[in-house]
Design goal:
Chain lengths: 208, 660
C-alpha cells in the first residue's frame, strides 16, 4: 500500500508545547509543531500504531500580529500529594494558532480514521484548556519536489527519511521524547528547526 | 639535510625569542630606515650579536633576503642562516599580506580608526613623532638582553606600536604596527611547530638555498585556514554555570594544540568571553576531515562550533621573484589573498560533539527522576546536583550528565555573593539587592557596521567586510577591550571588596544596600558607561555594544537575570526584575535626561495602561493632547515617536525617581 502525505490546517485558541527546560520559573514554548507532539497526540486519540502515521508541522508566517502571538501567563502550581504551592511559574504559550501539519500514512487509513477534519489535544496544560486543536482543509500533497533550505520543524533522525530529508553541513541538534510504554520513554536525537537540509519543499523554508 | 625537529634546547631558545620586537626600528621613522632593514648598518648594534643572540636574529630578519641589496653599505653576513631567522623573515611577509589592506584610501603614519576619527575635526596626526630620542631607543636596544626583549616591546606598546600604522610610509593606516607584530609572532609559532611538514632545516647554508626553500614552501605545501566560532545553547541556571564561557579559551587552545595550529586572531579576551561567540582564526597543516574529527573530540555536550575552512598555498603575487615567474604561473597569482578573503563569507559547517542517538534513563537514583541532563539537554542524566549529603532538603535538585556535573563541581565559588542577602542597620533588617552588569558586543552586526562607517567616510571607495579583513576588526576590539576594562574598573573600584563579584570580563555584580539606593546606583552606572563610551566611540553610527543591567533581591535566582542579560535589545537595557524595564538607545537616553519628569508619575502610569489595553497609540496621543502644556518637551518627543510611553515610564521608575 502506498503512503501519501496529507496537508491539514491546524487551528487552536491556545497552544503550549513547552521547551524542555528544568529549574526555571519561566518556561518558553516551542515555536513549531514537533514530530513527537503531533504523532503522540494522533496515537493517543485515534489509536494509530507504531509506524502507521508520521507527522510534523510548523506555524504559519503571517503579517497579522494577532496570529501565532506569543503570550505569557503566571500560574502557581501545587504539589499533587500535599497541595502545597510551588514557586510561581511563568509559562509562554501561543494564541490564535494557525499552523500547517503534514501527515504521512496510508491513504485509506487516514481518510477513514481522520477524514476531512478532526480534533486533537496537544502539548501542555491540557487541564487548563490549552492545546485543543482543530485540523481541517485536508489536501493531498502532490508536489513532492526537493529543495534546499532551513527545516521548519523538529524531526527525529530515525524518521528523516520519511520526509526525504538529507542533512547538510549545518544541523541544529536536540532531543525529542519517544514513549516506549505508557509510563516510560527515551530521548532520541533529532534535527531541529533552522537546520540546513534538503527535503520536501513543504517542510523546508528559505535560507536566511 | 637535518630537518627542524625542535629539540629541547631549541624549544627553550624559541621561548626566549620575541618575534614581536622585529620591527622596533620602525619607531625611529623613515630617516633611520636602514637600521630597520638591517641592524648591521648601525655599528653600535654589532655587540648584540654576542650579548643577545636571539634579539639579533629577530632584528636582522630582513637580511635573509636582502643580503645582496645591502652588501655595499654594510658587511652583512647572515649565512649560514639558522631556522629562527628564516622563519621570522618568512612570517613577516605572511603577516604583512594580512595586515596591509585598503591601500590608497588614506595616508597617515598613525592608525586611523573610523569609530574614533573623522576627516575633519577628529583627524589623527598624520606624522608620528617618537616620544623618546632615536639615540635613546638605539641605546636601549643595544643594552637589551634576550630575556628583556618582551619587556622592551611592552614598554613601547601603548604609546608607539599601537598608535603607529604598520608601514613607516603610512600607506596602510588602518592596522597598527602592534597588530602586525602579533601576527608575526603567531605565524612564527606556526612555522616552528610545523617545521617538519615544511621541511625547514635547522641551518640554511646559502641565499640560493634559502630562496629555493621559500618557493618550495610557498608552492608545494598547502595550509588550512580555519575560522571558527565556539557557541553554546546551554541556558545558565546558576552563577557557577558561567564556567561554560570561562572554559572557551582553554577549549580553543586545546583544539589549536591538537591540530598543531596557531591562532592568528582570537576575537575575544584571552581569558574569558567578552562578546557573543568567540571567533577565532587559526592556521594549521591538517586537512579538513582531520580538523573536524579533532574538534568533535574536544567538544562537550555544552558546545557546538561553526566553522569555515579554506585550503590554500602560501603563494601570492607579491612573491613572484620576477615578472617572468608570474607569467609562468598566472592561475596561481592570487592563491593566498583570494582564499583568505573567502574565509569571511558565511560559515560552511556546524560541528557538534559525538551525540548518542538514543538517551535512556540511567540505572541509578538520578535516572529514576530524569532521563536527559537538565543543563545541556544532550547527555544522560546520571548525577544529582547538589548531592544529597551537601544539600539541604529545601534546595532544588538538578539531574545532570557527568560532564555538566563535573563542570559545576569545578566552577569557582563566588567570594562574597552568598552573604549579600540581608543586613542589619540600627536594628532594622535591610533587604539588599544584587545588580548584575553585562556588556556585550554583537560581532555579526559589527562586521556590517564597520564597512558602512568606512563607506560613509571615504565615499569614493566602496569597502566590503572582506576588504577590511581581521586587522581592522582587531583594532576595534583592542579599543573595545580598553573601554570595557575602564568601565569595569570604575564600577568595581567604587565598591568594597565584599560588595562586588567579578564573574566574567564582561559580567560583574555589585551589591546595592537597601532599596532606596537602587536608582542612585543605577544612575551612576549609566552615567559612567555613557561617559566612557563617548570617549572611545565618537562615530555617528554607534557600534553594536550593549549594556544590560538587572537588579533584584540578592537571593533572586540567577537564571532569571541571565535570561535578561543575555538578550539585550537596545544600547541600554535595565531591568528591575518584576518591577520595571527600560530598553533605549543613546539618543533616547539623551532626550529623557533633558525632560522634566516632575509630578507626572500617575499620568505616565495611566498612559501605559491605555496603550496596553487599547493597543492603540492614537488613544495615548489623544490623552496627551489634553495635557500637552504640562508635558512640554515630553509631549513633543512622544508625538514625533522618538519616545514611547513605556520608555518614559521605564526611565521614570528606574532612573528618574529623584525628581519627585
Amino acid at each position: 500500500m502506498n503512503k501519501v502525505f496529507f496537508q491539514y490546517r491546524l487551528i487552536a485558541e491556545m497552544l503550549c508545547i513547552g521547551e524542555r527546560m528544568k529549574k526555571g520559573t519561566f518556561r518558553p514554548c516551542v515555536k513549531t509543531i514537533p514530530f513527537s507532539s503531533i504523532v503522540g497526540a494522533l496515537k493517543d486519540e485515534y489509536g494509530f500504531k507504531e509506524g502507521e502515521i508520521f507527522a510534523a508541522g510548523y506555524l504559519e508566517a503571517t503579517q497579522d500580529n494577532q496570529t501565532n502571538k506569543i503570550e505569557q501567563m503566571t500560574m502557581a502550581p501545587q504539589y499533587v500529594d500535599s497541595g502545597v504551592s510551588r514557586v510561581p511559574l511563568t509559562v509562554e504559550f501561543i494564541i490564535n494558532v494557525k499552523a500547517k501539519v503534514y501527515l504521512l500514512g496510508e491513504k485509506d487509513l487516514i481518510e477513514k480514521r481522520l477524514g476531512e477534519k478532526f480534533s486533537i489535544t496537544m502539548g501542555a496544560l491540557k487541564s487548563k484548556g490549552f492545546g485543543r486543536c482543530k485540523l481541517s482543509e485536508m489536501t493531498l500533497v502532490e508536489d513532492l519536489t526537493i529543495k534546499k533550505g532551513e527545516l521548519l520543524t523538529r524531526i527525529p533522525e530515525e524518521h528523516l527519511d520519511k520526509f526525504c530529508i538529507e542533512k547538510l553541513k549545518k544541523p541544529v541538534y536536540g532531543y525529542l521524547f519517544k514513549p516506549t510504554s505508557l509510563t516510560e520513554g527515551v530521548y532520541v536525537k533529532s534535527l531541529f528547526e533552522r537546520s540546513l537540509v534538503k527535503g520536501y519543499n513543504f517542510i523546508v523554508g528559505g535560507v536566511e | 639535510m637535518e630537518l627542524g625537529v625542535l629539540s629541547r634546547e631549541h624549544e627553550k631558545m624559541s621561548n626566549e625569542l620575541v618575534p614581536e620586537i622585529h620591527d622596533i626600528f620602525k619607531l625611529l621613522g623613515e630617516k633611520y630606515n636602514q637600521y630597520h632593514w638591517s641592524p648591521c648598518a648601525c655599528r653600535d648594534l654589532n655587540s648584540i650579536k654576542d650579548s643577545s643572540p636571539n634579539l639579533w636574529k629577530v632584528l636582522s630578519h630582513h637580511c635573509t633576503w636582502d643580503v645582496e641589496k645591502y652588501k655595499e653599505n654594510h658587511k652583512c653576513k647572515p649565512y649560514p642562516l639558522d631556522i629562527e631567522t628564516f622563519v621570522i623573515s618568512f612570517a613577516d611577509t605572511r603577516a604583512s599580506m594580512i595586515s596591509r589592506r585598503l591601500q590608497g584610501i588614506y595616508k597617515s603614519e598613525t592608525v586611523f580608526k573610523v569609530w574614533k576619527h573623522n576627516l575633519d575635526s577628529l583627524k589623527p596626526p598624520c606624522k608620528h613623532i617618537l616620544e623618546c630620542k632615536p639615540d635613546e631607543l638605539i641605546k636601549e636596544v643595544k643594552g637589551c638582553k634576550d630575556s628583556e626583549a618582551l619587556r622592551l616591546f611592552e614598554k613601547y606598546r601603548e604609546k608607539e606600536f599601537e598608535v603607529r600604522s604598520e608601514d613607516t610610509a603610512g600607506k596602510y593606516p588602518f592596522a597598527s604596527l602592534y597588530t602586525h607584530c602579533i601576527l608575526v609572532k603567531r605565524w612564527h609559532e606556526f612555522f616552528i611547530e610545523n617545521s617538519n611538514y615544511f621541511e625547514i632545516p635547522l641551518q640554511i647554508e646559502t641565499l640560493d638555498k634559502s630562496i629555493e626553500l621559500k618557493y618550495k614552501i610557498l608552492m608545494g605545501k598547502p595550509i588550512y585556514f580555519v575560522r571558527l566560532k565556539l557557541r553554546t545553547s546551554t541556558n545558565l541556571a546558576r552563577l557557577r554555570d558561567t564556567k561554560v564561557f570561562k572554559d572557551i579559551p582553554q577549549i580553543i587552545r586545546d583544539i589549536s594544540k591538537d591540530v598543531k595550529g596557531s591562532v592568528l586572531y582570537s576575537l575575544g579576551e584571552e581569558r574569558e568571553r567578552v562578546f557573543k561567540g568567540d571567533e577565532v582564526l587559526l592556521v594549521t597543516v591538517f586537512p579538513e576531515q582531520e580538523i573536524i574529527e579533532k574538534i568533535k573530540n574536544r567538544l562537550s555536550s555544552n558546545y557546538f562550533m561553526e566553522i569555515k575552512i579554506a585550503e590554500t598555498l602560501l603563494y601570492n603575487n607579491h612573491d613572484a621573484k620576477n615578472d617572468q615567474e608570474s607569467k609562468e604561473i598566472p592561475e596561481k597569482k592570487e592563491w593566498f589573498e583570494k582564499n583568505f578573503s573567502r574565509l569571511f563569507d558565511d560559515f560552511d559547517e556546524r560541528i557538534y560533539p559525538k551525540l548518542d542517538p538514543v538517551i535512556k534513563a540511567a540505572d541509578n537514583e538520578a535516572g529514576d527522576k530524569a532521563i536527559i541532563c537538565d543543563l545541556c539537554q544532550k547527555g544522560q542524566a546520571e548525577k544529582i546536583y547538589p548531592s544529597e549529603e551537601l544539600s539541604p532538603e529545601t534546595q532544588a535538585q538538578e539531574y545532570l550528565c557527568s560532564k555538566c556535573h563535573q563542570m559545576r563541581k569545578e566552577a569557582d565559588k563566588t567570594k562574597s555573593f552568598q552573604g549579600w542577602g540581608e543586613d542589619e542597620e540600627d536594628g532594622e533588617k535591610r533587604d539588599n539587592k544584587a545588580c548584575f552588569i553585562m556588556v556585550t558586543l554583537d560581532m555579526d552586526k559589527l562586521s556590517k557596521i564597520l564597512p558602512d562607517l568606512f563607506n560613509k567616510m571615504f565615499k569614493e571607495k566602496l569597502v566590503l567586510f572582506s576588504d577590511l579583513g581581521l586587522p581592522v576588526l582587531n583594532e576595534f576590539l583592542e579599543d573595545y577591550k580598553k573601554f570595557l576594562k575602564e568601565f569595569r574598573t570604575q564600577i568595581l573600584n567604587s565598591k568594597e571588596v565584599d560588595s562586588k563579584e567579578e564573574i566574567l570580563d564582561n559580567l560583574f555584580c555589585i551589591k546595592i544596600q537597601g532599596s532606596d539606593e537602587v536608582s542612585k546606583e543605577l544612575r551612576g552606572v549609566v552615567e559612567k558607561y555613557t561617559a566612557i563610551f563617548d570617549r572611545y566611540f565618537k562615530c555617528e553610527i554607534k557600534p553594536p555594544i550593549r549594556l544590560s543591567v538587572t537588579c533584584a533581591n540578592a537571593k533572586f535566582p540567577f537564571f532569571k537575570h541571565w535570561q535578561l542579560l543575555d538578550n539585550p535589545k537596545k544600547s541600554i537595557n535595565i531591568h528591575l526584575i518584576n518591577r520595571a524595564s527600560l530598553e533605549i538607545n543613546f539618543s533616547q537616553l539623551q532626550l529623557l535626561q533633558k525632560v522634566n519628569l516632575k509630578n507626572v508619575s500617575t499620568f505616565l502610569h495611566k498612559l501605559v495602561q491605555i496603550e496596553r489595553r487599547t493597543k492603540s497609540r492614537l488613544m495615548v496621543e489623544m490623552t496627551m493632547i489634553k495635557e500637552r502644556k504640562r508635558l512640554g518637551e515630553l509631549y513633543q518627543y512622544f508625538m514625533t515617536q522618538e519616545l514611547s510611553s513605556k520608555d518614559i515610564l521605564g526611565y521614570y521608575k528606574i532612573l528618574g525617581e529623584r525628581d519627585e
